[in-house]
Design goal:
This is NADH-ubiquinone oxidoreductase chain 4. It is found in: Membrane; Mitochondrion membrane. Keywords: Electron transport, Membrane, Mitochondrion, NAD, Respiratory chain, Transmembrane, Transmembrane helix, Transport, Ubiquinone. It catalyses: a ubiquinone + NADH + 5 H(+)(in) = a ubiquinol + NAD(+) + 4 H(+)(out). With 491 residues, the protein is mainly alpha-helical. The protein has a two-stranded antiparallel ribbon with strand order 1-2. It has a domain of 135 residues. α3 packs antiparallel against α11. The chain is built from 24 helices and two strands. The longest helix is centred in the C-terminal third of the chain and has 33 residues.
Length: 491
Amino acid sequence: MLLLLLLGIPITGILIVFIYINASWHDRLDFSLNKRIKYTGLTTSIVNLFLSFIIFIGFDFSSNQFQFVREYHQISYFDFYLGVDGLSIYFLLLTTIITPISLLSNWTSISENIGSYVIIMLLLETLLLFVFLVLDILLFYIFFESILPPLFILIGFFGSNNRVRACFYLFLYTLLGSLFLLLSIVTMSSIMGTTDFDALYKTNFQYFSQLFLFFGIFIAFAVKTPTIFLNTWLLKAHVESPLGGSIILAGIVLKLSLYGILRLILPLLPKAYLDYTYLVYLIGVISIIYASINTLRTIDVKELIAYSSVSHASVYLLGVFSNTIQGIEGGITLGLGHGFASSGLFICAGGVLYDRSSTRLITYYRGMSQIMPLFSIFYFILCLGNVGTPLTLNFIGEFLSLYGIFERLPIVGALACSSILLSAAYTINMFTKICFAGSFSKFFISNIPDLNKREFYILFTLVAFTIIFGVYPSPILDGLHYNVSCLIYQA
């Protein structure tokens, strides 16, 4: 019942916003209406956050079985299953934490079509929760792809100047890549006669079948990660998207490929997964180096953070393909840490600096620490998290991921360690140029105030998660350990 409530609360919020809009259709500029719509969306997402914490508290981490299972038989020609296990519970929490933050981030910057914006954000939360809760591979694909139309509309309605091109890049890249995933799912269904996760986990496909299925599924997730030559859509989507869209993209959508690998490739295709790890590692290392070098030369703040997301996504991709407990746990932990740190950096770049000065170019900023000391402190801590400094959650994830890569292929592990140096180079370079690098321009004295209460609480929340779990990661690692161990031995 708790999972149905988790999915039903955002849908209820959408219906309430629809009622508000229809009741006041004649007065589109009613400020009290806009305020009610905003608070409805925020209240809905916060209630969902508390409900997800209740599910987490009641979850039994000593079992690797799906829990809170709801079964609805014979809906259409397949069965509708919902459930959560020790892997999906953390992605569930990440989704419910990031959604209210993304709504608060655009609290004042979006003043038109507020109802549409809130509806899209709540719809995205519902669809993302479905991805992490469904226990049928066909439903997984359906909800995996269903996030594209809301993202397309979100960027198209509320994005920057070049938003149309960004919309089509996002839609076409990810849709075409996911067609290979659909072909693989149809193949598995035709072989086994079922699309249920539990039934598929008990099968053993022939080696050549595993090869074709592996490459079909991996292509879809390589686009979603994204890897080298498949990352054009992400850069354009991040740069042109509104702030809330960038947070959802970096914090949750990029983790769909990580979750899909844990759910589809590792348990279903173990032979192909073990034999073609070297190919994945080659792609991942090239992605890390390519993205990091491009990050060093970019002058757009949001584009720089987007490129760094590509680099970190490649690290956790390599971690989960290491076939070691440390590597898989590190990949999941790095994914969670990246969700907090990158969301905070996007808020600093797009929600604080851009909202005050209307430019994303690093060259226009210098000496911000002199007029925005509170902002500079939070920005510095988030930059340290992005680098993977000790006492941050990103450090735990990156260290374990690289350890797992070393265990599997030491030479590739040594090359992957270049991400430590390169991320420190581009992140600290960005921070010093913005917060130091000489005296500030006189234009900023009267136009850039320091953080307000809303921005302070948002950034404080993300920094708190980054540091608390960096100092004490046991709630994450202990909860993952048994399920990851079962995943390894099952494969």
